[in-house]
Amino acid sequence: MGARDKVSIIPLGGMGEIGKNMTVIKVNQEMVIVDCGVMFPEDEMLGIDVVIPDVSYLLENKDMIRGIVLTHGHEDHIGALRFILKDLPVPVFGTKLTLALVKNKLREQNISGGVSFYPVKPRDVVKIGSIRAEFIRVCHNIPDAVAVALHTPAGTIVHTGDFKFDQTPVDGQPVDYFRLAQLGENGVLALLSDSTGAERPGFTPSEQVAFGRLEEVFRTAKGRIVVATYASSLYRIQQTFLIAARHGRQVAVVGKAIQEVVDVALANGYLAVPRGTLFEQNDLTSIPKEKTVILTTGLRAEPLSMMTRGSLADTRLGNYQTGDTVIISSSPVAGNERSVSRTIDNLCKLGADVYHEVAGTQIPGHAGQEELKLMLNLIRPKYFVPIQGEYRMLIRHTKLAQEVGISPDKIFVLDNGQVLELSAKKAGLTTKVPAGRVLVDGLGVGDVGNIVLRDRRQLSQDGILIVVVTISKENGQILAGPDMVSRGFVYVREAEELMEEAKLKVKQALDKQGERKITEWVAIKTNVRDVLSKFLYEKTRRRPMILPIIMEV
Asked: Of 23, 61, 366, 367, whose CA is between 20 and 30 Å from 146?
């Protein structure tokens, strides 16, 4: 470790939020990026598909970037690559399953060529510029998850990725405790550790606990079984196939996202499906209900987005009815609890027997408090940075670190874009780099901003009123109109008196404009909008979006 060498930790996402995980490790004039994920939109982000990190800082410094290192294959860690690799075609390092899932997403976006992929295995060490990246096996709820130790000239930085300490993992591959302890013994400059489970006491149960509970539900179910889970929860998917085969049932996979993951996992040897268990036809009615299992999720891999449509009679799932057993085997996305609760209610009304969180079929994929302490004790870092969680989770994680003996002045809670500079002798916050949210809507990346969202909110709350007027180009007199079209504001046929009065107000405003010889379209539109907005608020206490359309003849 050189006395003058410094390493900078720069989170571009994942701080104070769930998802959008992306961290830059910068040493001298070289950068390595760890993870590149998406975040699912919040309620007020109307119409937005996903949110990705702002990478303008990386684009400005693209010559410094030596590669992207991936910890595992969940969307909140790999989902933004399909948008970012177009502008940053840098080498990508990850385990076999992780890279297979990435390549599948890139094919969907028609991105091919220009990007080099380097598959790695646990215990592999690869040189990325002057940095040596070492991959260490950890447990999560998807296979091939790893932590990353970045050995830099300034010291070793350990990034845990998502992890938990499962003593009986489904794939029989436990955490590499020995290597983590070795790293701690050799000296770690900084630990960046997952904070998602920092508020949950104790240890996270093993994935095998869900296996036993699923087995019990399958044994008692008389009719059709529907299992809803995250698309990338491969362990739960694996358990579903094994238990279904044991009970003589066939599994139909319903939903684009989960079908893609199943196909990739099968092609790469990460999913074992007993012969005759996978049902690949579209006509679900051809299987007796007592022999059917439907494995489903939604387009965004949210456990109930497909279920929501199913509860309202989606044709692929068919109508739910008395005798169906529905197992919800994943926790709802943060902020989505109300819609999940409503869906469960709908399923119960339709007569389905629903097993959800209280039934023990949901097992978190993240470390609880005691496991977070264990990671801190194994690594024994000089400095500690909690990552990946809402702000209260980061703060809770700092308290856990203090409980195991890390001094408060060695702990740094960062905001996205904040630069933490470390060396062998000191640590401190320096500058900030751009690190916001880029909204993706359809094919548009970043073209929807705060102004468009504000308009969408206004449209959703008070509707729109379109005013069409034809005026003379010569003297500004009204030749036709004003005509009004209301959408989401009032039903015109039941508000004729209000509409007539509104038209009169517009006509009077236009007449005054004509008397003043004002013919500028912008001025006319602004005046119409102001007059109408004031009048409608006085009459209705609503503020619809008012869109004047002026035509000259």
From this structure: 61
